[in-house]
Design a protein that fits this description.
Layout: H1 2-18, H2 20-25, H3 28-37, H4 47-62, H5 66-83, H6 86-102, H7 106-119, H8 126-142, H9 146-162, H10 166-182, H11 186-203, H12 206-222, H13 226-242, H14 246-256
Length: 257
């Protein structure tokens, strides 16, 4: 068991070192946005500046630079408040919520999610509401409150179903499966992961398909069906390579280690 753990750690850090920095720093979109924003160094911000700054925040977030993302979102939020642009306010608050969540600042993340849900209903659609509730559920799961996580994730699922958002339904079903997994309710987890996998195939969501394959592999391992688990982890590795997902590749190699 100790050797298996060390091998997983080895593969994980290899891919972090050789794959992720290239993804973060060789980001042409970030470079382009920074170049565009330099035009306003001696000018007052305007709507075009705000759009570029918001985009920069999103790109920093996607690159894993969450503190930089927060700075971009906060400065854009100041502009949005000054110009009473409620759509942009909502986008900035949601961006801040996601960044705080990724930094494990769960209290601040929840404040921002609930701010968005409570005060910006007029500018957020059903899909965005569902996503916000789903993220709130994930936070409560991380905090160990599985029942609250389940209840809120069911709210998210209902919203996605009302909006006929197949991708949202798939992601929410995956999250429900994960709650069951951490409650050691492996049969229920397996059913929900398989449903999420089928829906992921319908909408061609490669990341979700990969995640379901890896999760199903883990379920079978926990159920003592090691050979089945191994086969699903091999499929997960193949999918991670197909969609060029470095973290997924590292994780799959770790599971196969």
């Amino acid at each position: 068991q100790q050797i298996r753990f060390l091998m997983r750690s080895f593969w994980f850090f290899c891919f972090l070192i050789f794959s992720i920095p290239q993804h973060i720093w060789a980001n042409e979109t970030v470079d382009s946005l920074l170049a565009v924003l330099r035009q306003w160094e001696d000018q007052a911000p305007d709507a075009e500046w705000a759009k570029a700054k918001l985009s920069l925040g999103r790109e920093w977030h996607n690159a894993g630079q969450f503190a930089k993302a927060q700075t971009a979102f906060e400065s854009t939020l100041d502009y949005a408040k000054a110009t009473q642009d409620y759509r942009m306010m909502s986008d900035c608050i949601l961006g801040l919520a996601k960044s705080h969540q990724r930094l494990n600042n769960f209290s601040k993340a929840l404040d921002h999610y609930y701010d968005n849900l409570d005060n910006y209903q007029q500018v957020i659609n059903k899909k965005q509401q569902g996503l916000a509730y789903s993220q709130v559920s994930d936070i409560y799961q991380n905090l160990g409150d599985n029942q609250k996580a389940f209840d809120i994730q069911m709210q998210a699922l209902q919203i996605f179903e009302e909006a006929a958002d197949t991708n949202g339904i798939a992601s929410s079903t995956y999250s429900l499966a994960t709650i069951f997994f951490y409650q050691s309710r492996f049969d229920a987890a397996l059913v929900h992961y398989e449903i999420a996998y089928d829906l992921g195939k319908v909408v061609n969501n490669g990341r979700l398909i990969y995640s379901c394959l890896a999760a199903i592999g883990s379920v079978y391992e926990r159920k003592g069906e090691v050979k089945k688990g191994l086969n699903y982890n091999k499929e997960a590795l193949a999918m991670a390579k197909e969609i060029d997902y470095p973290f997924g590749i590292a994780y799959a190699y770790g599971n196969l280690g």
